[in-house]
Write a structure and sequence with these properties.
By secondary structure, the chain is α/β, with parallel strands linked by helices. The chain is 39% helix and 18% strand. It is built from seven helices and six strands; from the N terminus they run E-H-E-H-H-E-E-H-H-E-H-E-H. Helix 1 crosses helix 7 and helix 4 packs across helix 6.
């Protein structure tokens, strides 16, 4: 049964590491409503890197309690529509720049703008390396606006032995930020 009180938005921008977004969707609890907002560039990157259609692939990962929104006329484009939080994973440097500078030129950046103005949790999984001073400045500006900047960085204490265990660790850390219970990795319990 879906918890109608919990709606979380997953934005997918055109940065590399779509596999992490897919893993997030696979591990996301079925009792929480998941709204997915893929950018146009995410679809382009998916076609180029994975040779597949992004929307079709998302629909194979999860069939229940999911909605995909792509149009600016979506209910997500209004601050009056209640959702709990938004994570953009991956967050491309372009999407980071747009959000930092208040540009709401597509549904994804509009949802981020709503999080900012409505004081909702916004998590950015910035996927870029190395970071230049402009990206760092954009991240700092957003951090001062209570945005959680959370690049996908693994903790080696998590018994990471495979790509799947690395993805479990990262998705688990994102679930922690979003206040979602999980058992995706072994927590550090001291020596």
């Amino acid at each position: 049964m879906v918890n109608k009180q919990r709606i979380i938005v997953l934005g997918i921008s055109g940065g590399s590491s779509l596999e992490l977004s897919f893993h997030f969707i696979k591990r996301f609890p079925l009792d929480i409503m998941l709204y997915i907002v893929p950018s146009k560039n995410a679809s382009i990157v998916c076609k180029a890197e994975k040779k597949m259609n992004l929307i079709n692939h998302i629909n194979t990962l999860r069939q229940y309690n999911i909605e995909i929104h792509q149009n600016i006329t979506s209910k997500l484009a209004s601050g009056s529509f209640r959702f709990e939080s938004c994570i953009i994973l991956p967050t491309s440097s372009n999407t980071l720049s747009c959000i930092s500078n208040g540009l709401q030129n597509n549904l994804l950046t509009r949802v981020a703008g709503i999080c900012l103005k409505e004081k909702r949790l916004l998590v950015l999984g910035v996927r870029e390396m190395p970071l230049d001073s402009i990206m760092l400045s954009n991240m700092t500006r957003l951090a001062h606006s209570n945005v959680c900047i959370a690049p996908p960085i693994i903790g080696y204490y998590g018994n990471i032995t495979s790509l799947e265990s690395m993805q479990d660790f990262l998705v688990g850390k994102y679930f922690d930020i979003l206040n979602i219970e999980h058992d995706l990795f072994k927590r550090w319990d001291g020596i």
